[in-house]
Structures are given as structure tokens and as C-alpha cells.
Write a structure and sequence with these properties.
The structure holds two protein chains of two kinds. Chain A is an alpha/beta fold. Chain A contains 19 helices and twelve strands. The chains are: A alpha/beta, B mainly alpha.
């Protein structure tokens, strides 16, 4: 027994010794980073959805050509957002200097701000004015700009131009009530004409982050606030918000299929692209796919801002990805320089033209070359100016819980198990438990 | 002479200790250390990947995780149809130190009750995982036994059939889950909705994976499809050890098929069956991939709930407490099975 104790003591001493030495080692590395190396390496953790990876590699190449002393590695990260966050957290937990630049989701800045550098220290000021203000606001945590917008996303209303014309409408709906009237008329007409699978409106009704995006649009466009306001007050428990949710529930089984309560982005797109829906709420990515070869709705649809509810309010959920510099980077200054190049005008323009990624720089939506390549960007500018950010920065680091409470309760309303008034009351109580 | 032998023995003992040391070190680093670390973290409010100071919070995590309450609801009024309307649980359930949230309401002897917990999602995940485990393992065992009894027989094309039988098991869960997700689609894209419409059960729009009443059943269906081959394979291995001659003898003695199965096959394959059951039960209790891929944050298994608390909410301490509870539940099953299998070998 005594031997065992001795052994234990030895083991613990060893363990502490090792952990201390790695700690000290980490500091050594920090110190040596300032001295010039033969070739400085910057590693970028980037997404690999669609053309993202190719575009990031090309950007790295052009940067390296003009900066021969720098080597940029582009690291592929998991496609699934939560998996990617899981990977990043492991890097952060171990204070790893392996990755210098992280591509982060629009809902993360508040959560991981403590692991990121303040870009204002590296002269971000000269770039920020050109970007959409809502995103810069979203990426600013306690006065620090922790990430630079790279590309963005917002909720849009897709509509079938041919069918609206056929039934005598010359413009997309301006309000949600109009949308319901138009959808009912067209749906009844198309069904009578023989298409039994035709529906009026499809959206993301499954119980997941996507529903938070959709529902915050319903609430915001009905003058019901944005769940938790930037100053921290929980605003969801109000009559307008409750009314917005009840209205959405009234679509299920009437103009929207019952199955919409299990729809994600792709389910909605599949239905719309198969020609079986008049309206769809989705992100900009569905545009180029819908106009692809073999799509039955090619050239027969367009996009507009989402309808308004009360008082002419509109809302489009803000999505998209940012680039941030890790606090544990050995060379944050160079990393920041690479970041400003990646998120700069030239690169965003290229990404818009080649991959139809939405720029975060306002003036690019008026750029002739961009509009020639992706004409629908012209109608997007108005949408990006009315975006509503999910309350991720203000509720950080507990946004994931807040969002789950929200979409769980909204889903119950859509399923007919709860009412708008009951749900908003529940959401308020639960969120006040979470953020205290 | 005696002392020499004594020292020899001592030397051997020393030698044995040295030889045991590596395995002890390995065991310590890969089993006891992580386990102990999870255990000690479960009493703190540590956050994952955060510089926030970690504090000891005692049993608080467990209190939040496991508090349950059954409260009687008073009738408030009656609507025009004569249905009694009860008070809203939100108004009467305690809110300190943690708010109790409704899980379900039920009637006993014309009294109306509400069942609530401070973390309903976890309690539901425990219930779901247990339902999932009991039903899927039971179905897999019965079906596996049937498949094994057929496969053990000699028939043309048996080799090919055996290979075909293993296909569901060989497909990675990530792939088969996606496949089933498609079949369960909430429109007429999904085969179950098409069939449901044929038979007039659904209107072709039923959200199998979003409706709480069918979610767990969908999981059981996928798991049974996927794991029955594994069960069949294990049982088949057991069946192959039974000598063929005794069946001939039994037939000559006039013992029929069913009696042969219950009196001969079953007792002789029992040991294998118990091992297979242990395998499957423990596997099913810590099910993660299926729930995570199909449901993400819609509904949890115990393991995917722990993952959600760690990765999405970054609550390392709370997630550790969840893991400890899962560990204890699985441990309970192990004791139960050890008792059962011990009984088998003693016979």
C-alpha cells in the first residue's frame, strides 16, 4: 500500500512536471515568433462546402505570389456546423497555435471571442466601413472586432413568376397575409388542374437552428423584436410575436404541407425545384441551383425580400461566415494581414463572380461585373439592408441553449401542441433561466 | 535452504510486480485517469474551451439533472364540451433553485397530475434510451434467432444468402441513417408516406421524424434493420457448436420440432445468447451516432445529450455529470447481466 502511494506521488509529480513544461514551452514559442523565420507559415481553417475550398486555395496562391516569404496552408474542416465548432473548441481548449485563421459562423463571435484577437489593433478600421453594418455589429464583442465578414447569407422569398402571372398577379406578396391569399388561390387552381402534390409555401419547419432563422423573421417582420435585444432585454413575450407564430402555424396543412414540420433547407428546395410550390423561404444558394440545367423551374422564378407583417417591418435572418485570427497564433500580425486580403474587395468580388458567394461589401452589389455574372444580386442589396441578427452575441456563451428553447417552442406551435401566446411566455421564462 | 527459497520467491514476486507495472500504467492512463477526471469535473462548473474560473459546485449539477416532481393540478373551469380545464403548470411549479418544467400530465383516480423535472430533456433522453434499448434488443434477438435458425439449415445458395444477410450491418451508420432519413421523409418523397397513403393510414405528409409519437419507433426500426444480422451471426456461431446427431436421435424418439427447439436448441445456445445480449444491450445504451445524425437537437439519446451539453453549450461540468449518470446506468445493467450469466455458468 505504501508503495502504491509512493507510485501515485511519483505519477502526479511527473504529470505536473509535464504540464508545466508544455506551458513554459508555449511561452517560448510565443517569444520566438517575433524573430524572423526563413518562411512564415499561416494556416487557415476554411470550409469545404461547394467551391469554398478551391476559392480559398486560389486566394492563398495569389497572396503567396505577392508575399514570397509567406506560406499559407488551407485546412479543410467538417461541413457540418456543429462538428466544425467541436473541432475548433478542441484547438482552443489546448491553446493550439496550429491554426492562425478560423472561418467562423455568424452565431459564434460572442461564444469564442476570448480566443480571438481584436482586429482593430491591426488596423481593421480602414476596412470596416465598406461592409454591411449589421454584420460588423454582430462581430463586435465588448467593443472588440473579433472577426471580419467574409461572405453572408440572408433569408429570401423565392416565387414562381410564371404562376403569379398565370393567376393575374404582377408582383410578389408584400405582406404575409397577401402571401396566404395568393398561395391559396394558386394552390387551388393548380390542384384542380391536376397537380395533387402542389403547395403554396414551403419553408424550414424542422426543429433545428434553421427554424430559429425562419421564426425570427416572422417575429421581426411583425414588429415583435428579435427574441433578446442587443441591450440584453428579453423581448419575445409580446402580442406581436405570439401573433406571428400563430400565423405561421395557420399555414401548416393549409398552404404549406403538414410535413413542413420536418423540413430543412434541402427538403424545401427539392419541393420548390420540382415545381411543386409557389413560394419558398430559403437562402441565396438555392438560386443558382434552381437555374441549373435540368431544373424544371429554370428561368421561371425570382427572389424578393420576405413579406412584412405589422407596421411595414421586414426581417431577413442574417447568416454567413467570418474570418478571425486566433489569440494563440504565433504571428497574429501577419495572420491579420492575410485575413484582410482574404476578406478584401478583390477576393470578395472574385468569390461572388465565380462561386456566387454573397459579398459583405455593400458596393459590390452595384458592381457591373458582379451583376453581369449573378444578376439576382441586384435585388439582394435591399434584403441585406434589412437583416436581423440572431441574438447570438448578446446571449453568448449561451446562444445554443437560447436558440434551442426558441425553436423547440416554435416547433410545438407549428405542430399544434401549443399556441403562440403560450410559447412566447415559455420562451421568455426559459431564456431568463439561461442568461440569468 | 529455506531462506534462499524465500528470497527466490520474493524475487519472483518483485519480478511479477515489475511485469505488471506497464499494464497498470496503461490501465491507469486510459481508464482510471479519464474516468476520475470526468467524475471530479462533474462537481464543478467548468466550461469547455473557456478561461472562466472553475469553481466547485458540489452536487448542484446532479441536482439540476435529476430533480423530479409530481404535482397535483386543480381544476379551474370547464369548457362547453364538459372538458375540465386545469391550471397551467407554469404557474404552480417551483422555480427555485431551478425551475421545474412539465414533462407530461396524467390522471389517477380522477385526480389530475403533472410530472415535471428541472432538466426534462435529460429525463426524456434516459427514458428514450431505455425504451430504445429494451425494444430494439428484444426484437433483434427474436429476429436474429429466426434468421440464424434458417441460415444454419442446408439449402442451395446458402453462402450467398449469408453474405447478403450481413449487408445492413456492413453499411456505416452515417450512411444507413441518411438512407432511412430519406425513407422517413415527411412528403411523398419518403417510401413510408407513400405506403401510408396507399393503406390510408397517413395523408402522405406525416412527419415521422418530427412527431414525438413516432420518433423513438423510427430509431428502433433503423437499429433493428441494422443490427439483426450481427445478432444472427452470433447466434449462428452458438448453433454450430450443437452436434447434429442429437436432433436425429430426438426425431427417432418422436420429439417434434417445437419441443426440439425449446428443450434442446434453446438451452444449448443460452450461453452464447447471454453474451450476445450483453454486447447488444451495452451497445444500445450508449447509442450516439443514430440519434446524433438523424435528430441532432430534436431528441436525444443519453450519449448525444451529453455531447450536446459539451459541444453546443460548452458546459464541461454539467456534461461530465451527465456522463457519470450514464456510466452508473450502464453499470447497473452490467451487474444485472453478470448475475444472470453467473447463474448460467453455475448450472
Amino acid at each position: 500500500m505504501i508503495k502504491f502511494k509512493k507510485f501515485l506521488v511519483l505519477f502526479i509529480t511527473l504529470l505536473t512536471a509535464i504540464s508545466f513544461s508544455t506551458f513554459a514551452g508555449g511561452q517560448d514559442e510565443m517569444a520566438s515568433a517575433s524573430t524572423e523565420d526563413a518562411k512564415q507559415t499561416i494556416t487557415v481553417a476554411a470550409g469545404a462546402v461547394g467551391m469554398e475550398f478551391t476559392l480559398a486555395e486560389e486566394a492563398a496562391k495569389t497572396y503567396m505570389e505577392s508575399h514570397p516569404g509567406v506560406e499559407i496552408n488551407v485546412l479543410q474542416t467538417p461541413d457540418l456546423t456543429t462538428d466544425r465548432l467541436g473541432l475548433y473548441l478542441q484547438f482552443f481548449q489546448s491553446k493550439s497555435s496550429e491554426v492562425d485563421l478560423y472561418q467562423i459562423d455568424v452565431i459564434w463571435p460572442g461564444d469564442i471571442a476570448e480566443h480571438l484577437v481584436d482586429l482593430n489593433q491591426y488596423g481593421a478600421k480602414e476596412f470596416t466601413d465598406a461592409h454591411f453594418e449589421a454584420i460588423i455589429q454582430n462581430n463586435t464583442v465588448d467593443g472588440k472586432l473579433v472577426a471580419m465578414p467574409w461572405f453572408t447569407d440572408a433569408g429570401l422569398l423565392y416565387f414562381r413568376t410564371d404562376l403569379l402571372a398565370k393567376y393575374g398577379y404582377n408582383a410578389p406578396p408584400q405582406t404575409w397575409d397577401e402571401l396566404k391569399i395568393m398561395a391559396t388561390k394558386v394552390m387551388n387552381g393548380e390542384r384542380a388542374a391536376g397537380n395533387q402534390d402542389f403547395w403554396g409555401f414551403v419553408f424550414q419547419g424542422n426543429s433545428y437552428e434553421g427554424l430559429t432563422c425562419d421564426a425570427i423573421e416572422w417575429v421581426a417582420s411583425n414588429d415583435g423584436g428579435s427574441i433578446v435585444e442587443p441591450d440584453g432585454t428579453i423581448s419575445i413575450n409580446n402580442a406581436n410575436a405570439a401573433q406571428a407564430l400563430d400565423r405561421a402555424a395557420s399555414w401548416v396543412g393549409t398552404i404549406a404541407p403538414d410535413g413542413v414540420t420536418a423540413f430543412g433547407e434541402e427538403d424545401a428546395r427539392n419541393m420548390f425545384q420540382a415545381g411543386n410550390a409557389l413560394f419558398m423561404r430559403n437562402w441565396p444558394y438555392a438560386y443558382s441551383l434552381g437555374n441549373g440545367d435540368g431544373s424544371v423551374i429554370k428561368g421561371k422564378f425570382d427572389v424578393s425580400p420576405l413579406p412584412s407583417g405589422k407596421n411595414g417591418m421586414r426581417g431577413a435572418s442574417l447568416g454567413g461566415w467570418q474570418l478571425a485570427v486566433s489569440k494563440y497564433s504565433k504571428n497574429p500580425e501577419l495572420a491579420a494581414d492575410v485575413l484582410f486580403y482574404f476578406t478584401g474587395y478583390e477576393q470578395q468580388k472574385k468569390r461572388a463572380i465565380v462561386g456566387s458567394y454573397n459579398p459583405t461589401i455593400e458596393s459590390l452589389y452595384d458592381d457591373a461585373e458582379v451583376l453581369a455574372a449573378v444578376p439576382f444580386f441586384g435585388s439582394l442589396k435591399a434584403v441585406f439592408l434589412t437583416t436581423v441578427a440572431r441574438p447570438s452575441t448578446v446571449t453568448a456563451p449561451r446562444y445554443a441553449q437560447v436558440s434551442k428553447v426558441f425553436f423547440d417552442n416554435v416547433h410545438k406551435v407549428l405542430m399544434g401542441e401549443s399556441t403562440g401566446a403560450k410559447a412566447v411566455r415559455n420562451i421568455e421564462l426559459d431564456i431568463s433561466d439561461i442568461i440569468e | 535452504m529455506k531462506t534462499k527459497r524465500h528470497s527466490l520467491e520474493k524475487n519472483e514476486q518483485k519480478m511479477a510486480l515489475w511485469l505488471l507495472l506497464p499494464s497498470f500504467v496503461i490501465l491507469f492512463t486510459i481508464a482510471f485517469y479519464p474516468l476520475g477526471s470526468v467524475f471530479s469535473k462533474s462537481f464543478t462548473n467548468e466550461r469547455f474551451a473557456s478561461s472562466q474560473k472553475t469553481e466547485f459546485v458540489g452536487m448542484q449539477n446532479y441536482q439540476k439533472l435529476l430533480s423530479l416532481k409530481i404535482t397535483k393540478l386543480e381544476a379551474v373551469s370547464q369548457d362547453s364540451n364538459g372538458t375540465i380545464i386545469y391550471e397551467d403548470p407554469i404557474d404552480i411549479l417551483p422555480r427555485e433553485p431551478f425551475r421545474y418544467k412539465e414533462i407530461s400530465q396524467f390522471n389517477i383516480f380522477s385526480n389530475h397530475y403533472v410530472f415535471s423535472a428541472t432538466d426534462p430533456a435529460f429525463i426524456v433522453s434516459v427514458k428514450d434510451t431505455l425504451t430504445f434499448t429494451l425494444l430494439s434488443v428484444a426484437l433483434e434477438t427474436i429476429l436474429g434467432m429466426a434468421v440464424a435458425l434458417i441460415m444454419i439449415k442446408n439449402f442451395p445458395g446458402r453462402g450467398g444468402m449469408r453474405v447478403a444477410m450481413l449487408v445492413p450491418w456492413a453499411i456505416p451508420t452515417a450512411v444507413s441513417s441518411r438512407m432511412w432519413e430519406w425513407m422517413f421523409a415527411s412528403t411523398r418523397v419518403g417510401v413510408f408516406n407513400v405506403m401510408g397513403q396507399w393503406f390510408g393510414i397517413t395523408n402522405g405528409q406525416f412527419p415521422w421524424l418530427a412527431d414525438p409519437s413516432t420518433q423513438v419507433w423510427a430509431m428502433i426500426a433503423i437499429d433493428v434493420w441494422k443490427t439483426t444480422p450481427f445478432m444472427a451471426l452470433l447466434i449462428m456461431a452458438g448453433l454450430q457448436t450443437i452436434p447434429k446427431g442429437i436432433y436425429e436421435a430426438a426425431t427417432i424418439d418422436g420429439c417434434n420440432g417445437w419441443k426440439q427447439f425449446t428443450k434442446m436448441t434453446l438451452p444449448m445456445v443460452k450461453d452464447t445468447l447471454v453474451v450476445a445480449l450483453i454486447f447488444r444491450t451495452l451497445d444500445a445504451l450508449r447509442v450516439f451516432d443514430l440519434f446524433q445524425i438523424v435528430f441532432a437537437q430534436k431528441r436525444y439519446s443519453m450519449a448525444s445529450y451529453s455531447y450536446y451539453q459539451l459541444i453546443d453549450n460548452k458546459l464541461m461540468g454539467y456534461s461530465s455529470a451527465t456522463s457519470v449518470v450514464i456510466f452508473l446506468i450502464i453499470f447497473l445493467f452490467i451487474i444485472l447481466y453478470t448475475k444472470i450469466s453467473g447463474g448460467v455458468t453455475d448450472e
